[in-house]
Amino acid sequence: MCQVEFELACAAIKQLKGPLSDQEKLLVYGFYKQATQGDCDIPAPPASEVKAKAKWEAWSQNKGMSKMDAMRIYISKVEELKKKEEG
């Protein structure tokens, strides 16, 4: 598992034609942020900022996960989404 595969997955998700559910978007976002930046180190936005709060929660759920593990999971989730679109 390496950086190149992660970058290919990042490019592949942008090429998906079908719409992703908000839940799918948040899931891959959380793993992307963990893989690229590590643990969430920003304060939680107020509940009134629904989208920002959801993104913060998706990233924060991965606290303690290594960047490498987050990359692996991100790649696997993107592969699942690609298969779902093809099937």
Description:
- Pfam families: ACBP (PF00887).
- GO terms for molecular function: fatty-acyl-CoA binding.
- By secondary structure, the chain is an all-alpha fold.
- Helices cover 69% and strands 0% of the residues.
- Helix 2 packs antiparallel against helix 4.
- The longest helix is centred in the C-terminal third of the chain and has 20 residues.
Keywords:
single chain, mainly alpha, Acyl-CoA Binding Protein, Acyl-CoA-binding_prot_CS, lipid-binding, transport
Q: What order do the helices and strands come in, and which of them pair?
A:
Layout: H1 3-15, H2 22-37, H3 50-60, H4 67-86
Helix pairs in contact: 1-4, 2-3, 2-4
Organism: Propithecus coquereli
Keywords: Cytoplasm, Lipid-binding, Transport
Protein name: Diazepam-binding inhibitor-like 5
Radius of gyration: 13 Å
- Give the CATH topology: Acyl-CoA Binding Protein
What is the overall number of helices? 4
Number of strands: 0
Mass-distribution shape: flat
In this structure, how is the largest beta sheet organized? none
Instruction: Give the count of structural domains.
Output: 1
Q: Could you say which structural class the secondary elements and strand pairing correspond to?
A: mainly alpha
How helical, in percent, are the residues?
A: 55-70%
The arrangement of helices and strands along the chain is HHHH
Strand content: under 5%
**Averaged pLDDT, please?**
95
Low-confidence stretches: none
Question: Quick summary of this structure?
Answer:
The chain is mostly helical and 87 residues long. It has 4 helices and no strands. The two termini are 25 Å apart.
